[in-house]
Amino acid sequence: GEQVRDYIHASDAAEAFATAAFQAGPGAVLNVGSGVPIRIRDLADRIIAAMGLSGVEKRFTGSSWAGDIDAWYADIGRMQALGWSPRVSLEEGLRRTVAWLQAHPKEAR
Fold first, then answer.
1. What pLDDT, in 10s, does the model give residues 10-58?
2. Above 80 in pLDDT, residue 109?
3. Could you give the CA distance from residue 85 to residue 74 in angstroms, rounded to a whole number?
4. Which residue in 51, 50, 13 sits closest to 31, CA to CA?
5. DSSP secondary structure string, the chain?
6. Which end of the chain, N or C, is more open, meaning fewer C-beta atoms within 10 Å of its C-beta?
């Protein structure tokens, strides 16, 4: 649970790809992400809180797969230079996801 990753809401990713397609030149190398690192352990805590759960036991194996890296998050500076920045925070994205799951229980199965 100590690995660090970068999560972005789907709506922000779609907007980033559209921005890159229309504003970046051919062959441009751009990173898309939130630019905000978060430990897997902390993400689990936020998901549990967003879902209103209590007493959930988290277990991390401590193992990974060959080639996995400890920390990955995006440097979004080039995207920001094109005028794009993510608008949906992790907490807001989790809130939206939980609301959708509650409104669509059959589709969520």
1. 999 999 999 999 999 889 999 999 999 999 999 999 999 999 998 899 9
2. no
3. 12
4. 13
5. ---EEE---HHHHHHHHHHHHHHSPTT-----S-S-EEEHHHHHHHHHHHTT--SPPP---S---TT--SB-----HHHHHTT----S-HHHHHHHHHHHHHH-TTTT-
6. C
Q: What tokens appear for 1 in the block?
A: 């649970």
pTM: 0.85
Alpha-carbon torsion 49, 52, 57, 59, what sign?
negative
Backbone φ, ψ for residue 40 (5° rounding): -55, -40
Structural contact between residues 33 and 76, judged by C-beta atoms closer than 8 angstroms? yes
Closest CA to 30 of 89, 93, 84: 84
Do 32 and 8 touch, CB atoms closer than 8 A? yes
The residues that bridge with 37 in the sheet, in sequence order, are 6
